User: What shape does this take?
Amino acid sequence: MSTGRTAAPDAVRSDGPGDVRLDDPGGVRRRLRDRLRTALLTLAGLAVLFLSLAFAITLGPADISVPDVWSAVAAHLGWGEAELTPIRDGIVWNLRMPRTVLAAVCGAGLAVCGVVLQSLLRNPLADPFVLGVSSGASTGAVAVVVLGVGGGVLTVSAGAFIGAVLSFSLVLFLSHTLGDTADRVILSGVAAMQLFSALTSFVVLTAADAETTRGVLFWLLGSLSGAAWTDVWMCAAVLFVALAVCLLHARALDAFAFGQDAAATLGVHVARVRLILLCTTALLTAALVSSAGAIGFVGLVLPHAARAVVGAGHPRLLPVTALAGAVFLIWVDTLARTVLDPQEVPVGVVTSLIGVPAFVVVLYRTRKTT
Amino acid sequence: MTYETAEVTEATGETVPATGLAAGRVAHKAGGRLIVDGITLTPRPGTTLGLLGPNGSGKSTLLRLLSGVLAPASGVVTLDGTPLPRLGRRETARRLAVVDQHASTQVELTVREVVALGRVPHRRPWSATTAADERAVEDALDRTSLTDRAGQSWHTLSGGERQRAHIARALAQAPRELLLDEPTNHLDIQHQLDLLNLIASLPVTTVIALHDLNLAAMFCDEILVLKEGRAYAHGTPAEVITERLIAEVYGVRARVTPAADPTDPLDHPSVRFLRSPPFPGPAGS
Assistant: This one.
């Protein structure tokens, strides 16, 4: 009827109910195409992820092949006989494997946090670190390592976790008293970040000896070198729960595109969804930071890359970003541990070197669209 | 020259109608000041109710109260007799849609994706798009003549097209009530008329805040005039839009030409403003 005409007053008065395009009634074909594309993308992503895992493990000083990796994994999962020598098996299963898997989990987790925070706070520069969670986690960990807080009962991870929750509570409290708008949350995050960074520096500079300082610094910059299977399981468990929670709220996140009021008029419980998702991302970040330190910019860069490929719809964006983040951090970490072999660069340094130019690009592009 | 005063409309707010949208003596306070002060309104189903009043008279706040985004300090907003909080956000969004004054986004979305946001309240988490969702979106695009633009980025649209996209999004919600806050702001006259023609032709109850008295006279079945958060006048355009009211509410002088044919539903009074210093006027009733 009025399809394709500009809005002349009589044209817009047409109110035929079934006015869909005749060449694709009900958009069935487009829907099928969309689902096929999503399925293919997910499959391709998973394939790339597993290939990346296998290949990244083979790279390094000891000569390991992809079949070696496979047989080690099969042996440990009880699918086959152990074919490798104990030393080579140890290199695969106890050193490179947990490290590479932890890289994948951290990459996925940080990228998912980035997507959620960017959508929730309507800020393309939002990132887990903006909330100040990583700084809080660092302070908590440093308090345990350097000051011996907890009397040996608290592990570094637990300390980091408590620090993260404390700084997040501070951010929530500050932003709530300041008016609870999107920019206030970010400014509160910046304030918390500065406070906890200062505390960390103070503790390290006054209390630590040179050796401890070096260890703490490495961890503060973000490093996967100390990865153990316990870290991997803890982070993976938190990641899957967090991803499920985020996917459950994927459509609500879509609704935030035009702001909180618009989301509310689309049936979203804004305050409740915001609290759930902010807590989820904060806890996920805390878990990741306590295992791998403050790896920055993954949460900032990957969501933008993923959006460019699959668009802004969160049901698709969240899993794709998780996959992209996992693959990204696997390769960045591989680069970090091989590029200056035998010396190792903290992975956080490499992500920052990649992330800062990307940060500038994002800033530049948002300057043009507003 | 007859119009009801706030006291009269308040007196009718004792019973809540069982059909459609209704507000009973709603009030909202901000900074210790009453922004909306005891407003009662019951738009007849299927008609267009215009909200008029100077800047800061409480039009936008009243719309936010009606949509449930703001909780009233006192009074109640109901849909078919059920208060909004009891109905729940999601159920409310399934029948009441809102088009804001300047809703913008930095997110890279196509026009179809923006319109599809209207289906959010109709969908469960995890569920895929249904044929009904798809049909509602295509129908909304068609009604707003945006079908050809569906695949285009929202950021490439002109101001008028963006407003039409928002109206399409609201239509995709399949609402029975539509609230609009000055949707024609910043549009040229052709787009203003197109947009209001579109809105007036929709088979939904519409509450629309407008600045332009002539457009309000043209497109509204009823008009509620707000002044300092109170209902100042309520009635048909011919009853409400008078020289005296314009002087009292806006403090400006105007000539009002009544409709030439009072029996013609498409005819309406028209307003011509006069150049003059602000009219002192009485301080209201």
In short: Residues 1-14 of chain B have pLDDT under 50 and may be disordered. The domain at 1-95+175-242 of chain B is CATH 3.40.50.300 (Rossmann fold).
